[in-house]
Amino acid sequence: MTPSSAARTSALESILDASRIETDPSALGAYAIHGVSPASAARPASAAEAAEIVRYAVAEKLTVVPSGNRTKLELAGRPQSYDIALDLSALREIAHYDPADLTLSVDAGMPLWQLNATLFQHNQFLPLLTPYYSTSTIGGTIASGLDSPLRQFYGTARDFLLGAEFIDGIGARVKSGGRVVKNVTGYDLHKLLIGSLGSLAMITRLNFRTFPAPAGSRGFVASFPTPEGALALRRTITESPLSPLTLEVLSPAAARLFATRTPLTPEVPVFSGENHTARQVPLPLPGDWFRPNSWQLCVAFAGTSEVIKRYTRDLTHFAEQTQAETADFLDDATRPSIWGRLREALSLFRESTPDATVFRLSLLPSHHAITITVLQGVAKAMGLPLAIVARASGALYLALLPESQGADVRTGTTDDAVLEKLGLLTQEVFAMSRSRNGDAALLFAPEALRMLPSVQAAQANRFPLAPRIKAAFDPSGIFPAPYSA
Amino acid sequence: MVLCMTRRVAPRCDYFYSGCIQRSIAVFSAPIEMNALVRELQKLVGQDAVLHRPEDLLLYEYDASVEKGRPDAVVFPSTTEQVSRIVKLAAANDVPIVGRGAGTGLSGGALPRAGGIMLAFARMNRILKIDLENQRATVQPGVVNADLTRSVEADGLYFAPDPSSQKSSTIGGNVSENAGGPHTLAYGVTTNHVTALGLVLPDGEITHTGTAQGDATPYDLTALFVGSEGTLALVTEITVKLSRKAEAITTLLAIFDAVDDASETVADITARGITPAACEMMDGWTLRAVEEYIHAGFPTDSAAVLLIEVEGLNEVVAAQSAAIDEVCRTHRAREVRVAQDTKQRELLWKGRKNSFGALGRIAPGNYVLDGVIPRSKLPQTLRYIKELGEKNGCFIGNIFHAGDGNLHPIVLFDPRDTAQFQRAMHLSAEIIRYCVEVGGSLTGEHGIGMEKSELMPLLFSEADFALMRRVHDATNPKCALNPGKIFPLGKGCGETRLRSHPQAPAPPAVAAQNS
What we know:
The complex is a heterodimer of chains A (about 475) and B (about 525).
Chain A: H1 5-13, E1 21-22, H2 25-28, E2 40-42, H3 47-60, E3 64-67, E4 84-87, E5 94-98, E6 103-107, H4 112-120, E7 124-125, H5 138-144, H6 151-154, H7 157-160, E8 161-167, E9 173-177, H8 189-193, E10 202-209, E11 211-212, E12 217-224, H9 227-238, E13 246-250, H10 252-260, E14 264-266, E15 280-282, E16 295-302, H11 305-321, E17 326-329, H12 335-343, H13 345-352, E18 357-362, H14 368-382, E19 386-391, E20 395-400, H15 416-435, E21 439-444, H16 447-451, H17 453-458, H18 465-473
Parallel strand pairs in A: 2-4, 3-4
Antiparallel strand pairs in A: 1-2, 5-6, 6-10, 7-11, 8-9, 8-10, 12-16, 12-17, 13-16, 13-19, 14-15, 18-20, 18-21, 19-20
Helix pairs in contact in A: 14-15
Chain B: E1 10-11, E2 24-27, H1 34-45, E3 50-51, H2 54-57, E4 73-75, H3 80-92, E5 97-100, E6 117-120, E7 127-131, E8 136-139, H4 145-152, E9 157-158, H5 171-177, H6 184-187, E10 194-200, E11 206-210, H7 221-225, E12 234-241, E13 243-244, E14 248-256, H8 259-271, E15 278-283, H9 284-294, E16 304-312, H10 314-330, E17 335-338, H11 342-353, H12 355-359, E18 365-368, E19 371-372, H13 378-391, E20 396-400, E21 406-407, E22 409-413, H14 418-437, H15 462-475, E23 498-501
Parallel strand pairs in B: 4-6, 5-6
Antiparallel strand pairs in B: 1-2, 2-23, 3-4, 7-8, 8-12, 9-13, 10-11, 10-12, 14-16, 14-17, 15-16, 15-20, 18-22, 19-21, 20-22
């Protein structure tokens, strides 16, 4: 039997200080996911308290949704049940940092930008320049599984997360991996947490390998009349000896959006350790770098002056070879505003319209051209604007951006005609990805779309092992389900 | 149909357990009728694909570790479907299965702890698909690591994980153990290069993880199975990333008169954020042994050398080589040589990769350890190892992946001398304990297997084991696959399938292996 709200409050108060418990419905709106608020929120001061809350929830058969700074909770869709919001944002210590070993152990609630600001002081950083950079915690970033434009060079969190401490679904404090850069001791359970959207465990601490901050970063943008042109240059570069930090193609609709939106960003220069402050500032507009009618290839690279010369020579040559309309090197003043927008591509898509429907397609790069052509065609026929970011790693982001009127950005309401179109395109996106030995994920979408039976069928889990792993971590199902099925 | 078979008591020695108490394992089972099971296996895969005579099985009771364990039968499937049928047959008869690639593992991962069927992937050695444009290959588990590189190198590609066993070890084995190698410093270990797997579960179900591209929803199951040491599923198909060969490679040999200077150099290269592709250390004693054997041109009067490789654009290599040269000289390198051509470079690497074989010429037995420490702790750890050896009158050499902090101390001993052997094992355990104390780990690339299962509690709590066990049971609830590995006895499959046996232990096997 579910405890009464008074009983629940008093039980929570026996675990943590009353000031760390929120039960006021108006305040709990801050924890709402697609309009669903929890009955209470707890912001523990330690991992031990967090574990006790989980054990209490297990005993009382309550559901728990782990959170950091709550920037991307909608990724998992509307929770079927939401008793306690377990807010880890108060845990924000760097437990261990050995700059000479380039390894780090940090609490899950540490803001990502603040973590990097600390690392920059040692001329190091974590190559997770991910969406909602200025407001995300490191734990939320890992749980979301979102990648960064820098993955072209540094890979994804899977490649540099060395270990983790977390609270499993029975409330036990558990760890896996370690704090050394090479380790095959036990199962890599921590890697399952990447992208798990809080469905397996509450992450309390993460161990990373850090990287030297690249010196002398530069940028290059080339534009083309067609996606094929930009993708051809992308391929020429991946097959060359160059190893850029970022290599991705933007569609005209993405460029138009980037040209006009000004995301907030902390004043942390991306590639140097100077002048970081806590102040968040809107990124300056990028001038006319983003061309509203072109497909653009954006390249970031770094190195000594000799290396820069080499990139300059080769990129200029490759752009000529592939008949780019324009090919320009970014000046120092413009670069941060361009990179900031590439980093925030997903947040810019999502915030641009209440019914933004954003997919990640995991496809081999050679499948990008046909996928883009087909989906562009379908979206155009339906009158749905489609913005695209196509990373050379194969991650292809698609955003359908219907111009909805008067809907709330967090819940999304939409008329049936738009919903039907979004539903058809969603089916097409999943069918195309899966038929090409790839997969898709519905990242942000109006809840009404997620609820459509056709959409649920399209994204049905294909991995019979996934529910078994979920049950192993969380036998009584106190954490949210990772997929809508 | 249910068959029964006798399980021979497979002797082993838990070197690390309770101060080197040797003990044996036996299996609960009703006796007899091996022949019936062999006949069933032969029906599934053909007569020539099953070994069962004792003289044939003898070859399969070893891998490259100091462990030993004989299977009751070895079967060589050719297809995933055959693997599935074999697994179902074994499950119906409650006979455990262990998968095996080339048997080059260093922790007993591919040995049966308690008899049963060994499923050897030697005949599943086809490269199924090469996709040059997307830099992917899909292979069967029995494909030899170096053969994959050989098949794509004309197109400028290669498979990056390069364990020293790469000329014989299989990609299936590399996946099971999450193999490393010298160049994993820059390019990562096996798991960083695997994007999708085909699997056979212990109930015979054929399934898969991942995508060809690599990202997967909702969970990165591929990352769980890589390095799970054959305890969760049998891997029957592997999709890997292929890397592009660098435009330029420079190989440097830095020569030092003091081990401390060499280890300070490694720590300083790391701290300065210089990222060579490989950074290997060999101490003077071991390199003299290697030089006598290989004639690679190592200076025999030095205290230590670093073999450092830099790869990338011409401009990057030039800058990094200069930076490394400067760090070496700052730490009193006597000389920094640069390999002038491919031949010189290959000779240096030949010396490194055959170094463990060279040591076999000096002492009748050697035990190669595998521990990891933070790179910043390298100088103090090497001093500790040296003092420990001296205090105990035991020689301990060092040839290892210094840039990763992945130590391979080599303890020499004469296995015919029980006291010497036990001392060597005791020192080995002490070194691994020290690695953990300074913030490191039990194994960087060899795996836990049988070798280190009893050391796991140094790092993991009861709660950690409980979750690991639940994850294990999610695919392998009856311990049908590779029982008695990774988990300390009694915490994994111990209660259901294995029990300790009071019988006297067999003498240890002599190891002469590579790493």
